[in-house]
Specification:
globular, 21 helices, 39% helix, Bact_solute-bd_prot1
């Protein structure tokens, strides 16, 4: 399932610093007196004591692009209460740019034509990120961090240091970042079941992969119009083989992160990898998962889930998509919806060793401001405000005056009288959850909200806190592990390996019997090994080692 992000907004009347003159994309300027250059040649913004108007007092408009295949425009200002409020009340217009299902191509076209949007959300420590830095296409944010209060206060000092690019500057704003001060760990990976179907089938035991297989067959037999399982989500299946197998190790070119030996090894040395692939093949061949899961769009998958046509779903963003689907279905039928369940695992595996998702203070991606932006400081002002407690509150619970008017001592909103009389359908139609840059304040406020009234707590917050109890791996130790120069030999090999992975992953799904599967699996291993796979492992091992030393692990 595609990643779908959450929500946020906040409002401090900030006294913010003033004018900023950026270099042109070429690195030249007709007004050199208004810029500063450090020893690396990178132009840094000049921040004066002149105060900017508080966010929302003057119109602000900028373009925004997420560098992911799954990212598509969400209908800013038209579909949900939060962005309508931002557009109408806060005078902010957010122009969305989609990837058209091919982020690499879209990004490359924008770079080549020098038509970058004002803001880009992308993975840090990647060739794309580093190229933006090298070519001076994004704005150094050091001065803004020093001048504006929220983000700098929320980001731990050691995290800020790890965010620095190769030239020593900080260019990004992390999204969904954590903190050593966060006492309410949350996680978004998980499993959900269709509540009505599960109840009607007698709520059979659903703990292991064998239980799952039996349940999916039962669903297929009893409910011919229902899709037993949406997407096999191999990251979740892999994690179910225990030993703290880390789901992110399957990204792009899979490797085996062996926490016992403290080594990164070939994924083909891990028996769990083949078992995972065999399980995917079996579920597909027997019609127990969506037959178009390899090609369906995020919108198509969401429609199936929101209509209640899915019996089981697993995803890395299950808490957000699960909440939306649950609210939509419950608005029509109070007995309908989805329930989250504990992580499933293979027979013989200790459930305590199942932790497919990690935590991290660096977040899952970063948002950068490009040199195309006309008002970069005001854009930063918005995101800084958005990351605050007030921002997280509005993102999750809507603007004040709809569901709440005041909040408690922990920052959690208190239901107003209007909220108490609204129907589930009316609340679902608010479509709360828009959040382009989440901070750990979301966790703090969410946990406080649950304590207010556990029975009426938001579905996704309860689910996120539940899965957060299983988190054990610190993802920051893998920061930059796949940052490879695309023009180097390893970078060229890496691109070839990613295509090999894509091709053979599909071939394994379509293998008609065990003999064909085993043959394709061996070809898969041979193809990667012939394309520099061990050199990639050596590179990732070295980066991992340096990160662990830096973090004292």
């Amino acid at each position: 399932m595609k990643k779908i992000r959450k929500r946020l907004f906040g409002g401090l009347s900030l006294i913010l610093a003033g004018s900023l003159v950026l270099s042109a994309c070429s690195g030249n300027s007709n007004n050199p007196g208004n810029e500063q250059t450090n020893s690396t040649g990178t132009q840094t913004p000049e921040v004066t004591g002149e105060a900017l108007p508080a966010f929302g007092e003057q119109p602000l408009e900028f373009s925004y692009y997420m560098n992911y295949d799954w990212a598509s425009p969400s209908g800013y200002g038209t579909n949900d209460a939060v962005t309508k409020w931002l557009k109408e009340e806060k005078k902010m217009n957010w122009t969305e740019i989609g990837s058209n299902g091919n982020a690499k191509q879209k990004f490359g076209t924008m770079v080549a034509s020098d038509t970058l949007p004002d803001v880009i959300a992308l993975d840090p420590n990647t060739p794309e990120f580093e190229n933006l830095v090298k070519n001076k296409k994004i704005v150094p944010l050091d001065a803004y961090y020093d001048k504006y209060p929220n983000l700098k206060d929320l980001i731990d000092p050691d995290t800020m240091e790890m965010m620095r690019a190769s030239d020593g500057h900080v260019y990004g704003m992390p999204s969904w970042f954590g903190s050593s001060r966060n006492e309410n760990q949350m996680a978004s990976f998980g499993w959900i079941v269709n509540r009505k179907i599960y109840a009607e089938l007698g709520k059979p035991k659903l703990e292991t992969f064998d239980d799952l297989y039996a349940y999916l067959k039962l669903v297929k037999d009893k409910y011919p119009d229902i899709i037993p399982m949406q997407d096999p989500s191999e990251m979740m299946i892999y994690g179910g083989y225990g030993d703290l197998r880390w789901s992110d190790s399957l990204k792009e070119v899979p490797v085996y992160v062996n926490f016992k030996t403290k080594a990164i090894e070939s994924i083909f040395t891990d028996p769990a990898f083949k078992k995972m692939k065999e399980m995917t093949n079996k579920l597909y061949q027997e019609g127990l998962v969506s037959q178009d899961f390899l090609t369906q769009s995020g919108e198509q998958a969401t429609e199936k889930l929101n209509s209640g046509r899915i019996a089981v779903q697993t995803a890395n963003s299950i808490t957000s998509i699960g909440r939306a689907a649950n609210n939509i279905l419950q608005a029509k039928d109070p007995a309908a919806g989805y329930d989250f369940i504990p992580y499933l695992y293979a027979d013989g595996v200790d459930p305590a060793a199942v932790a497919p998702i990690g935590f991290g203070k660096l977040g899952w991606n970063q948002t950068v401001i490009t040199t195309s932006a006309k008002e970069p400081e005001r854009i930063f002002q918005f995101f800084d405000w958005w990351a605050s407690a007030e921002g997280q509150r509005v993102s999750t619970y809507g603007p004040p005056g709809i569901l709440w008017d005041t909040f408690d001592e922990n920052g959690a909103p208190i239901d107003n009288e209007k909220s108490k009389t609204m129907t589930m359908e009316e609340k679902a139609n608010l479509k709360l959850g828009w959040n382009p840059l989440g901070s750990w304040q979301f966790h703090k406020i969410g946990a406080a909200r649950v304590k207010q009234n556990p029975e009426k707590a938001e579905w996704d917050v309860v689910a996120s806190l539940f899965y957060g109890k299983f988190v054990k791996t610190n993802n920051d130790q893998f920061n930059g592990i796949m940052n490879i120069d695309s023009k180097s030999k390893l970078g060229i090999d890496f691109a070839r390996m990613k295509q090999i992975v894509k091709d053979y992953d599909a071939k394994l799904v379509f293998a008609r019997d065990q003999a064909e599967f085993d043959s394709v699996f061996k070809q898969y291993e041979d193809a990667l090994n012939a394309s520099g796979y061990m050199d990639l492992i050596a590179h990732e091992t070295e980066v991992w080692k340096k990160n662990r030393e830096k973090m004292g692990l």
